[in-house]
Amino acid sequence: MDKSTKNKRINSSNKKSKKKKLWKRILLFIILILLIAGSCFAYKVYKNGWGLSGMLATMVGHDENTKKNLGEFRVLLLGISTDQEGVELTDTIMVASYNPNTQKATLLSIPRDTYTGKNTKKATAYEKMNALYSRKKDAKTTLDAVNKITGLNIEYYVIIKTEALIKLVDVIGGVTFNVPINMDYDDRSQNLHIHLKAGEQKLDGDKAEQLVRFRHNNNGTSYPEEYGDNDLGRMRTQREFIMQVMKQTLKPENIFKVGQILDVAKENVITNVDFNVAKDYVPYAVEFNTDNLLTETLPGTAPDWSTTNNVSIFIVDKEETLKLIQELFYDRDIDENNNGESTMNSNNSSKSSIKLEILNGSGDNKLLQNAVSDLKGAGYNVSRTGSTNTTSVTTIINKKGVSDSLLNNIKQVIGKGNISSSETTTSNKVDVTIILGKDYK
Questions:
Q1: Which class is domain 351-436?
Q2: Helix spans in 103-229 (H)
Q3: What does 270-282 look like in DSSP terms, one character per residue?
Q4: How many angstroms separate the CA atoms of 292 and 285, rounded?
Q5: Helices (H), 269-364
Q6: pTM for the complete prediction?
Q7: For all residues of the chain together, what is the average pLDDT?
């Protein structure tokens, strides 16, 4: 090998060596940049609270002060059925709220028959809450009516078509739910057929629609009085089902289905919620615990048809509504200690500390007054009264784990009452509900 050829090989080898060193340096530089960036990202995630919530908050540009500056988010939910062409009644009406700092939320059901007119003696179906949207296809009309009743000054609305529920439930793999009763109903005019057996089961989209639309069976029977008859029962089922849908949707495995979920929303949801507003709350909502969800129904009465122009309407109790709104949306944190636990002792032996609700199903207003007088005289705190559908048997419903001795004492005071438990309710409005029946004298 001559000297010239040898030198060329040496030069070539040196060049390759220099290139390798250069690439190593570039690779080390890239790795260093990634490590620094990763450390910065990890630090931001740490400052945002770690976990999935912290990661999502960091990805959308939040810092540790963003959540502190977020207020309670309130929105009006309107569920409409599109089975009948040209008819879009909002038979599901709820006020929903979420506070990212306290991780607490509220669902308040507005009865669909809530009367928004001025003269009940000349009531028409067009003046009921569920018909307001159908008249002009304008959610603001319903929003204004709800704000007038609640005084909440809600800014946002979300209109959800039936198809959205069906598709969402299917996307997240179905929802396990305890169907409260056997449901058997057919309405050929709407092509609606409801056939569900009572008990815990996994519901697909089709069965989910059947569940939330059920009011009564073909034979006229409905939910039992202690659960909530007809519309009251349906609203309770809707709220409890929404809780289960939330639990299922917020599971980590469904985070990867966010694209499909957004597609469902895009096709079947109408809203005025700005994307920039929504994205600020999403990172914290993924860690929401549905045990922190309170649910209630707007208080009021359903007068006899003969006094309301033969139209079924619901009259809001303004005084009780103001109290309920104050408790659900403003005073919720007042009665909590530093550990975030309610100061209410489930075994509390003090009569005055227990909140009683008395609903009159006897048909006689004087009997309601008598019950209130007897219980107050015995030292109990009657915090709420109202009317309900006529029932034959008086029922005492334990909603907050009140002791058996106190429940039996309440029964002794009023002289009647089948004692039952409904501890699945999340309302903190009352501890015991008493439904007076025709057997109460």
A1: alpha beta
A2: 132-136, 139-150, 162-171, 205-213
A3: EE---HHHHHHHH
A4: 12
A5: 275-285, 318-329
A6: 0.62
A7: 78
